[in-house]
Design brief:
mainly alpha; globular
Amino acid sequence: MSPETQLFLLEHGGPMVLLLLLGGSMGSFLNVVVDRGSRGVSIVRPGSQCPNCGLRLRFGRENLPLLGWLLLRGRCRQCRLSIPLRYVLMEWGVAFAFVGVYQLAFDPLDCGGTMDPWLEATGGREGAFFFLGVLALMSGFFAAGVIDFRTYHIPMWITTALALSMPLFLLAQGLVEARPIGGRLLPVPLPGWVGVGSAMGGALSALLANGLLWRGVLPTSFADYDEYVEDGAVLAEYPHARREMGKELVFCSVIVAGFAIGGLLTQSFQHSGDPPVWLAAASSGVIGWASGAAVVWLVRIAGTLWLGQEAMGLGDVHLMGGAGALLGWFAPLLAFALAPFVALCWLSGLAVVQKCRGRWSGELPPMPFGPHLAIATMAVVLGYRPIQAAWEAWFGEVLPWPQ
């Protein structure tokens, strides 16, 4: 074994093996999330079991990521019912995807990384928390996109988990010994004290608004939607969409007021120096969450008021909020702008396939927007460098790439 190979294995072998195992475990979990989330049942109870004989799948034996399906030879140990191949393909697919993202981020093979150069400059150590956040975001977006594709609905608990956890990854990253890497402390913009106060006010107001919604003080929009859904349908012709936007504007106004009041109160105090990096990082996640959700929510409200029917799903709003909670304010805006082109490519490919099969009827089936948002967001994350290069080539100094 050459010295170069030994050095490579010493530096990158351990992380790549750990990512392979982590990806296999995440793939196993995503199997549960996608399957049960599509059916609208709990992902916690009952535990994993054979759908035919009810055998409880024990972790480390029947339920062993990456190897369990192979050891069981694709059949239940008790009733011998075939286990679908898609389960093991999901586990291995996510495992290799995690390793692939590691290559794109840190470029251990010297093939040219494509993600934010801040990650590569950390050498894979100092940027570990942000990198793990990217993997968690990818997993959540994958599950949300697949479920939305199947059911035209994004489970609220997925987007809530992203919104709550992504700022924690930034907070943990901010606790790492701060030193400029590539000219930046973190790959997201860090606010000053006014921004921190605004974020704290916005976070508290978001909790307040949801508490009021849960208690029934604030009205829930589209509460009677199911009354208009026909048997076997997933979408309905809802006649009161404009009316419901008023309810959502009231909900949003509570959160906007919290951001404004928090910023104004903080501005009235004298501050010495910059806020701690960890506090600024967590605040950046809150501001990014609000920015990512706001742009889609504005389009949803304006489009619905204009068209008289729901322009975008509320799940899309929360999905982009989850993206901004880790990536900052700019990435969700860019992903939202790219998503229509992703949708156009998908619909064009679908039309070509239908024509080749002789099934073209001149119309394409309705398609939820969530999967396109998820793909566009992952394209922005994984293709950061080529997208930045294209932006600078097209816009130059007229519209600089935000730093």
